[in-house]
Amino acid sequence: xxxxxxxxxxxxxxxxxxxxxxxxxxxxxxxxxxxxxxxxxxxxxxxxxxxxxxxxxxxxxxxxxxxxxxxxxxxxxxxxxxxxxxxxxxxxxxxxxxxxxxxxxxxxxxxxxxxxxxxxxxxxxxxxxxxxxxxxxxxxxxxxxxxxxxxxxxxxxxxxxxxxxxxxxxxxxxxxxxxxxxxxxxxxxxxxxxxxxxxxxxxxxxxxxxxxxxxxxxxxxxxxxxxxxxxxxxxxxxxxxxxxxxxxxxxxxxxxxxxxxxxxxxxxxxxxxxxxxxxxxxxxxxxxxxxxxxxxxxxxxxxxxxxxxxxxxxxxxxxxxxxxxxxxxxxxxxxxxxxxxxxxxxxxxxxxxxxxxxxxxxxxxxxxxxxxxxxxxxxxxxxxxxxxxxxxxxxxxxxxxxxxxxxxxxxxxxxxxxxxxxxxxxxxxxxxxxxxxxxxxxxxxxxxxxxxxxxxxxxxxxxxxxxxxxxxxxxxxx
Length: 478
Ligand SMILES: [Zn+2]
Hints:
With 478 residues, the protein is an alpha/beta fold. The chain is built from twelve helices and 18 strands.
């Protein structure tokens, strides 16, 4: 009888679990902090002493080279990191965009950056985490102060470049340590991108900036330790892209090849979207096609497959791509930079840094390469959040994890093009779960009470109990 009671209570416990709020799963999964130092190239850690990057690598893992997604610019790649989608699938295809259906332009530096429609072809991880019952905090991550699918991060700071790194860290740590702690945080810092553009990556002056980033990582580590979070948190430090040196000798002037009256250009060097004026497509295309050996010219439908950069109407009818180190301008009056990114994502100079440590990660492990789309399923695994359809593969990066996967890794990358599916409405699922759970609990209690009552009656035939109880148990095994 005692055994049966225990078994019954255990079954009842399963049933009650069905009726608990979904965030009860949080206890079992890790905390995660994703940090991006914009434009931190993979090899910067080799040019000056970086004791804090070294410590994270020693305590955890390093991926020597992360193959990011085309185009290797800030917004497309930051959105890839939190969606696992290539730009053609998440829809943030450039820092400056034009949407022919909306007849609207987007600029990362304008008010349009706060319009949800530019971001809503995908769902970032902070939204999915919250829909699964978790809490998220964002300190300036691109897109994190935008309402996406009706959801803001649980806590966030509106973008303001003048807020110091230390303040961003303090905010995040207060959210991780608060009475209702977040389990997922994202942190963004504008350097060394800005200095990389202004100085060029080959400038010795950039060494000072890299050393300063290492100091900032040191501040973050110390603050995590002071808050008692260091051992519990999974810390990932990466970036969106690298940087390459430009030269005033390597300029492609479009005005030399085609009249600017025949087209509108969208986004800037080194990948430029061209919208020919009506009736001018052929003239613009043929004028540019063989104009300069350092300029690659594609019709949208001919953009190479490996760029995963074709199946989105925000990609312009003609795409110009400069060879590494070359700059596309209309004429030379434009302001000239010494460093840039955005080029072919297979170039080493475009690849970002990646180090990570924490309970989920192995120690002292170095992996040679990974794709940035694989980070999303890895983070979902750490958080215990079911990933949405994505272009990444958990199987490709599972060797970074301390514990071998006990469940089947996510399937190989989904064939492209991939249309992200809208998550199910959690409130609807909750009502159905509640109704189902309540019905099962009432049913179970009815049978249980009946059985206990029947046990008191010695005249009942034994066979009835033996038939009903195993059936009930089997049906309710969840
Ligand atoms: Zn930049």
